[in-house]
Amino acid sequence: xxxxxxxxxxxxxxxxxxxxxxxxxxxxxxxxxxxxxxxxxxxxxxxxxxxxxxxxxxxxxxxxxxxxxxxxxxxxxxxxxxxxxxxxxxxxxxxxxxxxxxxxxxxxxxxxxxxxxxxxxxxxxxxxxxxxxxxxxxxxxxxxxxxxxxxxxxxxxxxxxxxxxxxxxxxxxxxxxxxxxxxxxxxxxxxxxxxxxxxxxxxxxxxxxxxxxxxxxxxxxxxxxxxxxxxxxxxxxxxxxxxxxxxxxxxxxxxxxxxxxxxxxxxxxxxxxxxxxxxxxxxxxxxxxxxxxxxxxxxxxxxxxxxxxxxxxxxxxxxxxxxxxxxxxxxxxxxxxxxxxxxxxxxxxxxxxxxxxxxxxxxxxxxxxxxxxxxxxxxxxxxxxxxx
Length: 388
Prior knowledge:
By secondary structure, this protein is of the alpha+beta class. The protein is built from eleven helices and ten strands.
C-alpha cells in the first residue's frame, strides 16, 4: 500500500506560518516548477547543459525579487527550497543571478546603476555572475585577493583570474571583486561578460551541479569605466551582508535537496519489492526513512527561525555560518541514506537520487566549506579566531 503523503514533507507545519497570499504565491511557483522545470532538468544534468528554453519564462515565474516585492524571508526561503527540490543547479543559477548580482547592485550601486542594470537582469535580458573565487584563493580570498585594478583617468584596468564562476558563460554582467594596486583597497565592478580582454573557459567534467555553467576567467587589462564601479564597496567587509544572505540561501537549498531525496526514497520503497514484500515494510528501511524525515524537519525548522530573525534584522554572519554548516551536513547525510535505499539503482542517474547525492556535495563545499563555516561559528562562541 502506498503510504499517506505528508503535505509537502512539512511534518512540523512550517509553511502554516505563511499568510494566505504567500501560500498562494508558493503554490503558483510549485506549479511552474512542476510543469516547466521538472520535466527537463534531469536530461540537462546528465548532459551538463543549461536549459536555455527556460530563460524567457523566468521573469514571470515568481522566483525573483521575492523580498523586494514585499514577501517575507520565510516565503523567499520556501521558494528557494522548492526550486532546490526541483533542481539544485537551477536554484544556484537563480541564487547567483538574483541574490548575489542583483543584490550587489541594490546594496552597493548608485541610483543610475540600479535604474540601468537591474531591469535588464530582472527581465533576464542579461544574466548575472559573481566573480569572487580565484584559482589560488577560495576560503582565504578575503585576505588573498590577487585580481587587481589600476586607475587610468576615467576608467580602470582589470587583470587577474577568477575560477568556479557560475553563470559566467552567458551574455551578461560580472560582479568582479579586485584589489586596487595603489591603495590596496578592495573594489567592486560591474563588467560586461563579453568585454575585450576576457577569456572564459568552461569548467567541465563536474560530478555535481552539472547544469550550472561554471567558468575559469582570465582578465587581461580589461577596460572598465568608472561608471561601472560599485561605490559601496571599498573593503572586503562591505560585502559581508551579501555573503551572509547567500549562506542562508544555501541552508534553504539543503532543505530542498533533502525534501527531494525523501520524496524519491519513500516512493521507491513503496513500489520496490524484495523477498516478496515492499521494501518499505522492512524495519531497517523504515528506520532510515525516519532518519531522513527527522533531518529534513530539523533543517526546515532551523531555517524558519533564521527567516524570523531576517525579518527582524537580527540574522548575523555567525548565524548564517552555523546554519549553512549544519544543514549542509544533514543534507549530505540524508541523500546518502536515500541513495543507499535504492541499492544498485541508486548509482544510475535515471532514478534521480544519484543526481541529488552528487549535488549535495556542492552544498557542503560552496559558499564557504563546512569546516570554515564551523570555525566562523566557533569564533562567535569562544571569541577566538582559529584562522587568520
